[in-house]
Each structure stands twice: as structure tokens, then as C-alpha cells.
Amino acid sequence: NTAAAFHEAIRLGVECIELDIHRSADGGLILIHDGTVDRTSDGSGKVAELTTAEILALDAGSWFDPAWANEHFLLLQEALELIPAAIRLNVHVKAYDHDRQLLAPEVVDVLQAQGRLDNAFMAADEATLICARQRQRSLEICNLSVQPAQDYVQRSSRINCRILQPSHVMTTVQMVSDAHALGMEVNPFFADDEQEMRRLGDCGVDGILTNQPARLQDVRRSLMSC
Fold this sequence. Notes:
Elements: H1 3-12, E1 16-23, E2 29-31, H2 52-56, E3 74-75, H3 76-82, E4 88-93, H4 100-113, E5 120-124, H5 126-135, E6 140-143, H6 152-158, E7 163-164, H7 173-181, E8 185-186, H8 194-203, H9 213-225
Parallel strand pairs: 1-4, 4-5, 5-6, 6-7, 7-8
Antiparallel strand pairs: 1-2, 2-3
Helix pairs in contact: 4-5, 8-9
């Protein structure tokens, strides 16, 4: 969720980039994985209780490696300006009861204003997706409400969801087959080791979320050459 990470993904030629979005105390659409800044910066506190200026002033790189010192969190609009339009966006909206009615439509509005709706989808819980669809009926959505697992595919179909993101451990040949029969794509979360990447490939998935895109590209090339 930093400029350095996005630049590296772009350099590697990835097809899709995931963004995690929380809403700050003053309405900033902040790219950050966690609900607090503690783990991934030199600050502390809940994103929802900090101002945009306070969050953007933090060092978001040193925790990972000193080489990335002074990397900062980004706003959604900044990320959209940085990431080429040809790269698909997996926009993970991390909304809660206190901000869902604000955050979901605000994200839709920014995507629309930047002309990115045609090559992006929103990933979130069912309540957030329904809220977002009220703002923009044509929005592509990915259902992250995976439990109960036994009816995940059917529940997603009922809300006109075309993209599934199940846990990698619950992804099976049967699940992928059922989803494909309903015209859905399946992109499990997540796989970083080669063995699991290959297992998911054998299940027939359409994509895999990973923290190791270069490794996944190598696995994909080897599978395609078989």
C-alpha cells in the first residue's frame, strides 16, 4: 500500500494490484492494511481516530526494511494517479458499521471521477457491497463474506457478484467448478509458497493474491509450458 510497493509491482508487470482502504477521522481515504497504524508505521492509534495529515506524516517503510525509510501512506486518489490504467484494481474497502454508509460511496465516487470503474472491482463484506451498488449499479464486486463456506458461491451469486476471493485453504476443484458454472472468477487469498500456488493452479483458479508476485509469475510460466 505504498508507492514503493506499487512501483515494484508495476516493474514486475503484474496484471492486478490490491489496495486496502480505511477512512480517517476527517474523511481521508487512506491506503493501509490494518485498522491501526501501529504495525506498519512509526505511529500508533486507530486510522478512524487519526486525521489524514497525522497519518500521511508517518514513516510507513522502516518497519519493513530500513531501505524503505520515509515511505508514506497514500490516499486513494494518489494511488490511482500512480498505477497505470491498464492494471486491474482490487479495491478492498475495509468498512465498519460506523463508516460504511460514508466510505463505500466515497470510494465509488473517486473511482468514477478518475475513470477507473471499467478496470476495477470492489472487494468487501456483503453489507458494504450492497451499499456501494446503491451508488453505482454497474460496479463489479467481490464478496469477502466467505462464511459459511458451504454456500459462499450461491450467496455471492444472489447479490450478482462475479468475483470470488475465498481463503486458499477452502479453495477446491469443486468450488472453482461451481463458480465457473455460474460465470464467476475465483482468485484465492493468498499463496506465497510455490507448492500452494501450484495446488491452486491445479484447482483451475483464475488468479491468486500473493505477496510474492515474481515467484507466482515463475510458477505460472512453468504451468503454461507443461
